[in-house]
Write a structure and sequence with these properties.
The protein has a six-stranded mixed sheet, sandwiched between helices. A four-stranded antiparallel sheet has the order 2-1-4-5, sandwiched between helices. It is globular and about 70 Å long. The longest helix has 18 residues. Helix 7 packs across helix 8, helix 8 packs parallel to helix 9 and helix 15 runs antiparallel to helix 16. The chain has about 350 residues and is α/β, with parallel strands linked by helices. Helices cover about 40% and strands about 20% of the residues. It has 17 helices and 14 strands.
Length: about 350
Amino acid sequence: MTQPQREEVIRCEGIWKIFGDKSRQAMDAIRSEGLSKKDIREKFDCVVGVQDASFSVGRGEIFCIMGLSGSGKSTLIRHINRLIEPTAGSIIIEGQNVNAMNARDLRALRAERIGMVFQSMALMPHRTVRENVGFSLEVRGVAEANAAKIAAAIDAVDLTGWDKKYPDELSGGMQQRVGLARAIAADPSILLMDEPFSALDPLIRKQLQGTFMQLSAELHKTTVFITHDLDEAIRIGDRIAIMKDGVLVQIGTPEQIVTEPADDYVAEFVAGISKLDLVTAARIMQPLAQYQAQHGAQDMAHWPVARPEDKLNALVDLAVGADSPIRIEAEGRVVGIVTRRALLRGIQGRDEAMTAQEAA
C-alpha cells in the first residue's frame, strides 16, 4: 500500500566516508575513474566506510538501518549529528545544512535537537539515576529548571522510585532504560540509537523494544535506529534500510523488504522471516472486478470481511471459520477478494508470482 507522505526531518544525500590520509584524492579518483573499494585501498591506502548513501526520514518515523558488523551502519548514523565528518555529501536536519554549521551551532544541535543512545550507556557510576538522566540538562545549566522533565523521563521508562539508586544497583535492562531516559529528558525532536538493546538477553530486549515503540508513538520522536537483527528491525521499523559494505542495498517497509528483496543478499537475510505479521491483504487480494470476471456476481453478504491493511494472521483466523473467500472492504465498499489459495500463496511468500488463474 502507498505510504502516507510525512514531513521530512532528516535528509542525507550522497554520503561518502573514506578513512585515510589521502581520502580527498581517493574521492576524486572515485569520481573521475570509478575506482572500486579494493582499488582505493591498494592505490591510496584508504578504506571506504560509506558509499554514496542517500535516504530521508519523516517526522515521527522509526527508520532502521540494518546490516552485519562492518557494514558501515554505525559510521553512517554518526554523520547525522556530524560526530563523523563526511568525505562528500550533505546532511540536512529540519531544513538546515549540518555541513555548514559552525562549532557553536553544532553543539546546540547535539544538545537540544538530537538525542543519542549507544549500546554502552556510559552511565556515571558516582551519580544517581536522576543525576545521570539530567546530565545533558545540567551541562546546559538548566537541570533545576527542568526537574519536571527529568522526572517525566524517568517515569516514561518505568523507573519511578529508582531515581536515587546508582548504576551498580540496577540490572542491565534498567541501566539501558536510564540511557533512554537521558536521551529524551532534553526533549529532542530526533533520536539516534546505535544498537541500544543488542547486549541484553532476549526477554529484556523485547520488553525494551516495546517500551521504546510506545514512547516513540507517544512523544512522536523521529528515530534512526541501528541494528544487526532483522527481527528487531521488522518489529520496530516503519521503514528499513539494508546495508552491505558501506552501500544501502535496499530501503522499504518491512513488508517490502521481506516480500520484494532487491537482490540475493537481501533475499538470504529475509528467507526465514514469517510473512504472517507482515504481508497485508492488499498484497494478495484479487481486485473485485477481476474476481467477478472469473466467477460472476455472487452473494457476498455472509463472507468474512477484512481491510486492505489487515495482516495474514488476521486473514487466517477468518478463513478458519468460513468456507467462503474473504471480502476486502475499504471505505464501505468491496475492493478485493482473498481466496484460500491466495492466502496459502501469501504465507509461502509466493504472492508476487501469483497469476490471476492461481488466485482463483
